[in-house]
Amino acid sequence: MPNEEPHESAAHLTEHVSTPTGSDEAVEALKNGPLGALVIASIAVGLLFIGWLAFYFLLFIPRGPIG
């Protein structure tokens, strides 16, 4: 049963749309933007590396050489 009412997005009304920012404001807002993503990615890679070391030293080394 299709809906016959026309769809209006949230951006249809001007009170839901932000005012344009100047280039100086955009530079200030984005100055430290990638830093948080870099911190989160570094933590994730560090945890993966610690997990790999744990598998290596706790599982593979005690088994000894194969063959």
Q: Would you kindly provide a written description of the structure presented here, covering whatever features stand out?
A:
This protein is mostly helical and about 70 residues long. The protein has a domain at about 35-65. Helices cover about 60% and strands about 0% of the residues. It is built from two helices and no strands. It has helices at about 25-30, 35-65. The radius of gyration is 26 Å and the shape is elongated. It starts with about 20 loop residues before the first helix and ends with a helix. The model has no long low-confidence stretch (mean pLDDT about 85).
Overview in brief:
The protein is mainly alpha-helical and 67 residues long. Helices cover 58% and strands 0% of the residues.
Please outline the helices and strands.
Elements (H helix, E strand, L loop, with lengths): L22 H8 L2 H31 L4
